[in-house]
Specification:
With 105 residues, the protein is mainly alpha-helical. Helix content is 70%, strand content 0%.
């Protein structure tokens, strides 16, 4: 709907996503947990549809060199984040290495 610019498509999509997210928040408040975790995720994805379509349209006219530089910075930031959080998710790096000892004569 949004991609083909139907009349009032943005309003319909945003209202639907808002109702879904409102229902998820209400369920969270009443039950105390995000039990169906797919509902808030789906609502957020629905709410991101109009800006995502706009960004996709702009990306098609962006020069390739600029996209390459932006992608390089994004991958550099991702690699830095992985390297900085390695002790949290890699248990072997956090524990000290055990040295083998030779048996006493």
């Amino acid at each position: 709907m949004v991609h083909w610019h139907w009349p009032r498509a943005n309003e319909i999509v945003l209202a639907t996503g808002g109702v879904m997210l409102g229902a998820a928040i209400l369920a969270r408040l009443l039950k105390g947990g995000w039990r169906p975790v797919g509902l808030p995720v789906a609502a957020i994805l629905v709410l991101l549809t109009p800006p995502g379509d706009f960004a996709a349209g702009k990306l098609q006219t962006t020069p390739a060199g600029l996209l390459a530089v932006a992608g390089s910075f994004l991958l550099f930031a991702l690699g830095t984040a992985v390297a900085l959080t390695k002790p949290r998710w890699n248990n072997h790096a956090a524990s000290p290495a055990t040295a083998e000892t030779e048996p006493a004569p």
